[in-house]
Design a protein that fits this description.
Elements lengths: L5 E7 L13 H8 L8 E6 L5 H13 L7 E7 L3 H4 L4 H17 L3 E5 L9 H17 L4 E2 L2 H4 L3 H8 L8 H12 L3 H5 L6
Parallel strand pairs: 1-2, 1-3, 3-4, 4-5
Helix pairs in contact: 1-8, 2-4, 4-5, 7-8
């Protein structure tokens, strides 16, 4: 008898839904395609456009809990965007919001990961870098994996070119592929509990 089915809930901004990707896959769809679980894994994209961390902290539990099914293996990804930077939220408040989400997930015995915000175009990347560092610190204090998408991509030629052809807020096909690569090569298979296909 095989393992019980895997369900991955991904809570985040519109990047979780792949906005701007002509293929409609985004990074979540690409990661799902490279996750050869048996039986196949289910990925649930719980995205709200331009959502702040405070808004996410208020809605995630209700959305995730109604998708928890006895007998299944569950994984939870938080993927906060950069809306905090345009709404006047302090860095301390952003940290606290993520901490509350991770602590709430821990109380529910959910295996959790955080995918940080990538660089933007026309945005203050210094502030995004600071937000990413703050989120990393919160996760490290709790032993939760953190995928830093900002540092590897801020000077990446392909990411910059992809962002330049879009609306400045969302990557295209290449950019989402880069985020997916970072997720898949940061201990993904061990985290979801399946053998690395490579």
């Amino acid at each position: 008898m095989g393992e019980s089915p895997l369900v991955v809930c991904v809570v985040g901004s519109e990047l979780v839904a792949g906005v701007g990707d002509p293929r409609g896959q985004g990074w979540v769809g690409r990661v799902a395609a490279q996750t050869p679980a048996d039986p196949p894994a289910t990925f649930l994209q719980l995205a709200v456009p331009f959502e702040t961390s405070q808004q996410m902290s208020k809605r995630w539990a209700g959305e995730v809990e109604r998708r928890l099914v006895d007998g299944l293996r569950h994984r939870l990804i938080f993927a906060p965007g950069t809306a905090d930077l345009s709404t006047g939220s302090s860095m301390a408040r952003s940290r606290l919001n993520l901490a509350d989400m991770l602590d709430g997930a821990a109380k529910r015995h959910l295996t959790t990961m955080v995918v940080g915000p990538p660089p933007g175009r026309g945005l203050d990347n210094d502030r995004i870098a600071a937000l990413s560092r703050a989120f990393r610190d919160v996760t490290e204090r709790r032993g939760v994996p953190y995928i830093d998408t900002f540092t590897p991509l801020v000077a990446h030629d392909q990411w910059i070119a992809d962002m330049a052809t879009g609306d400045g807020h969302h990557p295209g096909q290449a950019g989402y592929g880069l985020i997916a690569w970072l997720v898949l090569h940061s201990g993904w298979y061990g985290w979801v509990g399946i053998p690395d296909p490579t």
